[in-house]
Amino acid sequence: MIISLEGIQFLKNSGVAIQPLGKDIIRNENRCVHCGACLAVCASGALAIDRVARMVIFNNEKCIACELCIKACPPRALAVNF
Ligand code: SF4
Ligand code: SF4
Questions:
Q1: 3-class SS at 17?
Q2: Predicted pLDDT of residue 48
Q3: Going by fewer Cβ within 10 Å, which terminus of the chain is more open, N or C?
Q4: DSSP reduced 3-state for 15
Q5: CB 47 less than 6 A from any atom of ligand 2
Q6: Residues 6 or more apart from 62 whose CB is under 8 A from it?
Q7: pLDDT tens digits for 37-79?
Q8: Which residue's C-alpha comes closest to atom 6 of ligand 1?
Q9: How far apart are the CA of 17 and the centre of ligand 1, in A?
């Protein structure tokens, strides 16, 4: 999920504390076989299919670190990086 600077300022003005994510999701490109199993669980759009290249792309900037893709990935290409 990406929140605009205006959105962040609105939340701060509303008294909501904003903190950066304390963890990242990383993908081991050598393990990924582009099977697409992770696509169904990724609500943020961080994992998406490139139909031209026939590859699953991972956009770390869209990732909200929900970790749902980790269990969905058969070859364990996705992991938490603390
Ligand atoms: S489930 Fe794992 S192996 Fe399959 S496309 Fe996603 S990251 Fe790659
Ligand atoms: S942790 Fe995985 S499923 Fe969750 S947003 Fe990030 S890439 Fe998508």
A1: coil
A2: 97
A3: C
A4: coil
A5: yes
A6: 1, 2, 44, 45, 46
A7: 999 999 999 999 999 999 999 999 999 999 999 999 999 999 9
A8: 38
A9: 34
